Amino acid sequence: MTTTDRRIDRRWEQLHLWGPYGLLGISVVLAVASTGLMDRSAKWYAGWTLVAAAVALQVWWHGTRSRRPGRGRIPSGAGAAYYAVRWALAFVLSWLNPFFAFYAAAGYMDADELIPGRWQRLGLFASAVIVAGAQAGGLPFGSGVQWILFAALLVANSGLQMVVAHLQEQETRRSRERTETITELERTNAALQQALDENAALHAQLLVQAREAGVADERRRLAAEIHDTIAQGLTGIIAQLQVVAGATDLTTARTHLERASGLARHSLGEARRSVHNLAPVALADDGLPEALKKTVAEWAERTSIRAEFTVTGTAEQLHEEIAATLLRIVQEALSNAARHAHATRLGVTLSFLVDEVILDIRDDGQGFDPLALPERTRAGGFGLDGMRARAERVAGTLTVEAEPGHGTAVSARVPLVRDDR
Fold first, then answer.
1. Distance (Å, rounded) from C-alpha 361 to C-alpha 400?
2. pTM > 0.70
3. Who's near 23: CB < 8 A, 6+ residues apart?
4. Could you give the CA distance from residue 406 to residue 82 in angstroms, rounded to a whole number?
């Protein structure tokens, strides 16, 4: 409930509490001024006795309302009894002097609060009887014309009050519906906020799991690379040294020693590359676009293949897991292109959209048939399956388009998760 609503409710409360006092006071002043209660007759004594009873009734009701805990709803039985007694006093007073119809008009103000449900209309009609009788010249009526006038006034007063009561009921119903709607919206907002908090916690948990999975995958990838490069190189070195040990002439021994030396240098280079790739060092000082640009440039210089890097959209500072994932995918794609594609040109495009990042790697190499790829084994390389697994761990996807003789296109789509540091 707003401050304005509370202020209005407080004013209605004050009107219901003090209104009958004011209307009774107006009635007494006008009755005294008309000398109807000043003739020291039985009528005079009866009038002042009823006025005293009306005041006592209001004081009693005042105390009853004040003792209600939290200003809650008035019990229907007590409210209806108070309304009936007040109406009876007003009726008798109006019989003595028509000006007490002002006191009877208090029933128009609080019938909706004091009388339950459908009985409210009856209460309004009863109050209209007293008011219409006073307007027709006061009770009792002395002629048929007064009765006719009373009937017409009663219809007019009752009709007007019924219309007002109907409008009040509609407004009350609309107000209750608005309150229920606001309550439901608050409940929905609270549930939505709770869902957002849970989603944020889940997101953080997923990132932790992705980091842990990434560490495990890096270990598997490094083990596969060691098997494919360093271990094979060492095996070749041993084989060459065995030939040297059994050689009978110096020329043959020197030839195989040179081969063993070349294999050793190559294995040393592979070991250094594997250690370098163990962590995304390129992201330590640069953002993802700068790291990818340097990675592509270094790859082009090392392989003598023309390579270009392009950024589209507004670059964002990405979460470290997202950035590391995209960098690893590019490194693996470049490694595959250098080993297998025999390309003359390669392009890398990083696109920032509203809620996702797209990474495209395209080359004009010899391509391959994606359906004819051998299944990955525990000892196998990282490859396309590994790149796809990386993308899926951060709720992304990876697609490959390739055809023998027409190059290869790798596209990774991941959510745009900004760095929250």
1. 10
2. no
3. 102, 103, 105, 106
4. 96
